[in-house]
Write a structure and sequence with these properties.
This protein is α+β, with helices and mostly antiparallel strands. Helices cover 26% and strands 26% of the residues. It has one domain: minor pseudopilin epsh domain (minor pseudopilin epsh fold).
């Protein structure tokens, strides 16, 4: 009986050390997936603009995620749209959501794309579409890739354009100017349209 209790005590100690490190590993994996998804979607938007000789708009969505109980409104998804000559917008694909444990930092020092004004919608050519599970209760920020691969991001107000992905655990990291140890910054070259990412 004593030997069994000793074994159980050892197992409990091992679990106490393993569980926190496993949650850190899982959050790190979510950050990597979010970073890769953003990079791929931005690269695809630029490639589509060049290949089709059309402007492609990238929209960042802020909403209260219905899949995660008790969350705040966070920038946690993006979607791309191809724009016709008359500015009619057509989605290139579905909304791409970040993993539940990842969101865009909303401070303008950590994510300069937050300096962009909120997207306004045109009821005839570019109506506010309904997002799955969210409807139209969301806010969007948008920028465009041009047919030559450049962006419509201006250097008048911001020199470098980027977003920073952070963990939502704790939620205070989403609106903090002090970045956590694990984050991903994705930079967009406004002239060339190329996308680079940085991890600590």
């Amino acid at each position: 009986m004593l030997e069994l209790l000793a074994v159980l005590a050892i197992i409990a100690v091992v679990i106490a050390f393993v569980v926190p490190s496993m949650s850190g590993i899982l959050r790190g994996n979510d950050m990597t997936r979010g970073e890769q998804m953003f990079q791929q979607q931005l690269a695809l938007a630029r490639q589509t603009a060049v290949a089709n000789n059309r402007r492609v708009e990238v929209r960042l969505y802020e909403f209260d995620d219905p899949d995660v109980v008790g969350t705040d409104r966070l920038y946690r998804a993006l979607q791309t749209f191809i724009l016709a000559e008359d500015n009619t917008a057509k989605p290139l694909g579905n909304v791409q959501k970040l993993p539940n444990t990842v969101a865009i930092n909303t401070t303008t020092t950590a994510s300069t794309l937050m300096n962009l004004p909120d997207k306004t919608f045109d009821a005839t050519k570019d109506p506010q579409i309904k997002l799955p599970g969210v409807g139209t209760t969301y806010t969007a920020k948008a920028f465009q890739f041009r047919p030559d691969g450049s962006t419509n991001l201006s250097s008048a107000t911001v020199a470098d354009w980027f977003i920073t992905l952070v963990s939502t655990n704790p939620i205070t990291q989403v609106n903090s100017t002090t970045l956590p140890p694990n984050f991903a910054t994705i930079q967009i070259d406004r002239i060339g349209g190329t996308v680079r990412s940085y991890r600590p």
